[in-house]
Amino acid sequence: MPKSSPREKRREARRQALVLATPEFKIQFAEPVARRWLKEFFGRPVRAGLLPRKVCRWLACHKKRRIATSFVAKQHNARLYLKREESYTHHSTILLLELIKGRGEEWSRRHRHLTRREREVLHWLARGKSNAEIAAILGIKPATVGKHLERIYPKLGVENRTAAIGFDSENSEISR
Fold first, then answer.
1. Last residue of a domain, one of 76, 102, 128
2. What is the pLDDT along the chain (176 residues), one digit of tens a residue?
3. Residues 44 and 98 occupy one common structural domain
4. CA separation (Å) from 110 to 3, 107, 114, 148?
5. Distance between CA 134 and CA 121 in Å, rounded?
6. Are residue 97 and residue 13 in the same domain, yes or no?
């Protein structure tokens, strides 16, 4: 049996799923794996067919105050990233879920391999800045910021901004 490369192992350790819910937090559609993750990370919802209470509170705060488009739940060696996506209708909420398994010390080891500029980009990304805003702050082009992000994601073992932000905030807490 051939050995898997580190990249293949990272791909195996990541999973993604989709949930579609009403503004009242009733699940309209959820992939079976998404339902399982929600149950594993948040427990059973108050009523069947509803999103878990913590997710409902997060969505309600996001809707009212326009804050935090992503939410991270941690459990043992795994993290579940939830990202609210804009819907074309007001009758539904789209949640993208990404499960990342891996031990914190492995992530910390990879984090040290970021260049100084990549760490700066990650710092501003974690503070909610867009590529254009990061570019203006650092005095570089937005396309260069995008290229830095393309290099940052595999080094952190993540696939998107939300996961990278969660990774940065987790390591900031660890280093304090």
1. 102
2. 455 555 555 444 457 888 999 888 899 998 898 999 999 899 877 678 889 988 888 888 776 555 456 788 888 778 888 888 777 777 888 888 888 776 555 544 444 578 889 989 988 998 889 999 999 999 999 999 999 999 988 887 778 888 888 765 555 443 33
3. yes
4. 21, 5, 7, 15
5. 7
6. yes
Which of 81, 102, 123 is the last residue in one of the domains?
Answer: 102
What's the gap between Cα 90 and its chain centre? Answer: 23
The contacts of residue 102 (CB under 8 Å, 6+ apart) are: 10, 13, 77, 78, 157
Q: pTM for the whole thing?
A: 0.54
Q: Would you state the structure tokens that stand for residue 41, as one six-digit string?
A: 């990370």
Q: Which domain holds residue 76?
A: 6-102
